[in-house]
Amino acid sequence: MRGSKVHTRSRPRAGQRILGGAGEILITLGLILLLFVAWELWWTNIDADKSQADVTRDLVQGFKSGTSGKPSTSGKPSDAGIMIEGQAFGIMYIPRFGKDNAHPVTHGVGPEVLDKVGIGHYPGTQMPGEIGNFAVAAHRQTHGQVFWDIDKLVDGDKVYVQTLDGFFTYGYKRTTIVDPSRNDVLYPVPMEPGVEPAVATLTLTSCHPPFTTRERIIAFAELESKTPAGSEPPAEIADTVAKLFKDTKEGGK
User: pLDDT tens across 167-188, in order?
Assistant: First the structure.
């Protein structure tokens, strides 16, 4: 009987083992990165949309009962009429951004507001309808991307803000791009330090270009009219407002 050859599998060399392990690590890191991107671009929008819907529903209920957006008071004269960080007080409607566009406006511009509730009101700036600068911020991408279409505003567009006092109609004026350090856009007269305001201005701020924080895109509007609470809402948003109030009623609140 002839001798038979026995074939044995050679052991991988150390270099091959290292390369194989590195490859597995890179694949794992790639999967983690993809999951993170999916979370950032997809899930944060879903989560923020739900939070905003809940806050909007509470605001509508408060408008009905006459309690939404009232400044807090502690009983001390010095503390009366102070808005609290995280306190929602209004709903902003921007038809240019979509037929049913409506998002809550909350005092403060920290992550707990912008990432969850949508539109934040810069502390120290005016309230809706007041002479001076009512300035707000919102994300342009992720976390609800409320101001994604801020660059689409054109002459004739309106921005509506609903509070316990009624509806404030602002007419779009212009858009500019500035460096993130330009906080003069928040002045009572935007970009004009020391000037006494004579009109009520609305300033919308967001990041620019999309998916970066390199610059800021700023859209300005001026107050055109006020519709007192209890009156019919402005015609352009009447259907959206009616739907919000109807949905709240059907929701059992």
Answer: 999 999 999 999 999 999 999 9
Per DSSP, the three-state class of 26 is helix
Phi, psi for residue 223 in degrees, rounded to 5 = -65, 130
Residue 147's contacts (CB-CB under 8 Å, 6 or more residues apart) are 138, 139, 140, 204, 206
Please confirm, yes or no, whether 207 is among the known catalytic residues.
yes
Q: Whole-angstrom Cα distance, residue 235 to residue 245? A: 16
Is 214 strand, coil or helix?
coil
Phi, psi of 31 (to 5 degrees): -65, -40
pTM for the full predicted model: 0.78
Catalytic residue among 103, 107, 121, 139: 139
CATH topology of domain 43-69+86-251: Sortase; Chain: A; (2.40.260)
Give the amino acid at 136: V
